Amino acid sequence: MGINDCNNITDFRKLARRRLPVPLFHYIDGGSDDEMTLRRNTTAFDNYSLMPQGLVDVSAIDMTTRVLGQKIDWPLFLAPTGLTRLFHHEGERAVARAAAKAGTIYSLSTLSAVSIEEIGALTTGPKMFQIYIHKDRGLTYEFINRCKAAGYNAMCLTVDTIVAGNRERDLVTGMTTPPKLTLASLLSFALHPAWTLNYLTHEKFKLANVADRIAAGTGSSSSVIDYINAQFDRSLTWKDAEKAIAAWGGPFAIKGVMSVADAKRAAEVGASAVMVSNHGGRQLDSAPAPIDCIAPIVDALGDKLEVILDGGVRRGTHVLKALALGAKACSMGRPYLYGLAAGGQAGVERVLARLRAEVERDMALMGCTSVAQITRDKVERIQS
Fold first, then answer.
1. Is 318 known to be catalytic?
2. Does the predicted model carry a pTM greater than 0.85?
3. What is the CATH code of the structural domain delimited by 3-373?
């Protein structure tokens, strides 16, 4: 089985599982506690139906939309994901190139193995950088200034990771950054020689954006949970968000908003967008699914800021349901990581191509020729 045999995200997940050592696959795949929220993020889309409209000329479909100050070719972009280099030796470079080729936004994580500057110069596609508030506050503003100099178009602040969620799969598999050979993991690495050879023969893993400032970014082994708990500031408040927004001075999203109250605060401190997200079910288990939070936030905020759904997207219909409920666009992380692990840049490109084809086909089946026509009357919540 290769990437050309993958017709949907489930297929890519299966192939990624075959090609990755156990700790790395489960780092992508897992959530926190009992993984209730992880599962709910996707299954909650099943609670909504799309209403088709017939006898409409759909010979031309326009999927373009504008979000975070950027016109993109279709209403789905790539969310920030940390440690991307671990899943394929091409890492963030492959994903950034694939996003540019697909005409959409690539988001670079603070916890990337490739620097802000390198990704900034790599493609002409739109780019967003994701920041966390570190205990070293100067580091946050250093990131902002570096992104300005490197030509990034937008910024997002992740606010739901003041402490790491209880990611028990990582505890079981012994996931560390960078990966290290232990008695528990040795067999898994040995059974995936292609990944192991590529990892060992390419550049050494490091957290490129913080390697010269933080010991945990220099290559010493530690768990992701240890890094977050050691470096991220638990005293983060709305005042910190307001300062970061002012320092950036451009399109700025608050990522990790789930409630109307927090969305209102985001608008008050000057954010231009909120990413409705529970961190892919990796933080607070039992948090609601993002799709269930879209309509209340849109209804309360109107046009005061852009609402972006982040989490659970596995199908084109999921994107359309979010748009019908009022989202400006959606973002995704796991699906493109499965594609990356399955086949590098070509795998990411095929994931994006499959999802884009689904969005376009399903718009035609709904009788919608533009994103603007995907309105609230096109979606209904199924009554249980």
1. no
2. yes
3. 3.20.20.70
